[in-house]
Write a structure and sequence with these properties.
This protein is α+β, with helices and mostly antiparallel strands. The protein folds into two domains: 100 residues, 3-layer Sandwich (Rieske Iron-sulfur Protein), CATH 2.102.10; 212 residues, Naphthalene 1,2-dioxygenase Alpha Subunit, Chain A, domain 1, CATH 3.90.380.10. The strands form four sheets. It has a seven-stranded antiparallel β-sheet with strand order 11-17-16-15-14-13-12, with helices on both faces. A four-stranded antiparallel β-sheet has the order 4-3-2-5, with no helix packed on it. Strands 1-10-9 form a three-stranded antiparallel β-sheet. The longest helix has 26 residues. The chain is globular.
Length: 415
Amino acid sequence: MDTRNEMLTLLRSRREGFSLARPFYVDPAFFRLDLELIWYREWLFVGHDCELPKPGSFLTVQIGDYPIVLLRDRDGRVRAFHNSCRHRGSRVCTAEKGMAARLVCPYHQWTYDLDGRLLFARQMAEGFDKDGFGLKPVPCESVAGYIFVSLAAEPADFAPFRHLMEAYFGPHRLGEAKVAYESTIVEKGNWKLVWENNRECYHCAGNHPELCRSYPEAPTVTGVDGAEGDPDMQAHWARCEAAGLPSRFRIDPAGQYRVTRAPLLGDAVSYTMTGGRAVTADLSDAVPADRIGTLMLYHYPTTWNHVLGDHAVTFRVLPVSATETAVTTKWLVHRDAVEGVDYDLAELIHVWTATNDQDRRIVEENARGIRSPAYEPGPYSETHEGGVIQFVDWYARLIAPRLAEGGTPPLRSVA
């Protein structure tokens, strides 16, 4: 049986409410199909507008086999290109971030303008047409301070997600913030294990003492059901919406993304050891309300987010291999906030730095256990793991029809 049929057979025979079969978490061939059928077709979060503050600012990212460069062009527009020189394919931008008046390939100095046009290719044959060898563009969308790209030949309609983001995230003006700190850790586990761990707080009390000082473990916060009947959530939504902040739970009909505001525990207003503010300045001048809790966004397969009154914490998930996943965390603050004056960096990042390391350990132990031939899918808790069930159901519903299509999915060519 070939891999595509094996994967489809396992999905069709899986028990509802149970974890996936072992190959989904460890098999390189299954991982390759995840890349081709999900990662190379969906909209993916890659960074923030504020990371590209002026024309010539760029950042790079690796999505599976695809190196991508994002930049701000001379008109102030955010663009994305395949980071592959049209000469012999070398990466053009090798730094993670930087500034450049033009993009110059370090191999043979082919030079591109910020709109991707090839400007200079030295000592090529007479009659060489530069117009046919510009950098290949990648579909790119910027909304409410977030940048998404798609590697699909025909990307899905971005408009419904844009509408949701503008309403919920627009007031926080993340496009005008700045990144105070970022970190990337590589968790030795499949990307789906990273997401499954994130989508429940069943494990929080026993593993996250720092986070549990301020973040509620209630399944109505982490899951997908029950919030409408939770009086604390209802009261919080009413308070935030009275301040002009959309807050109620919204989920994409296909299950790919969801957004809601949730209260923090007790009098907590931020993710700190005391529950007090980490930053004296508000994240956004347009959100002066107190006690707004956390605005949470999940968008599969690349990002989860917490936006508070004083700062935001955003997460990016990128697959490295069948058993490795890179998780990048960024802490955003008001653009005028000054480290050492308006915030102490160690205090700002402490809770989520500790939580990320704890989650890394959890995912890696989970992965070690699943590698055992004795592993078999186990049942999720309907009470506490509704979010995990929803994620796995989304994955299965999305990839199964694509597996059934057969053949190689259409992708944008790099060469």
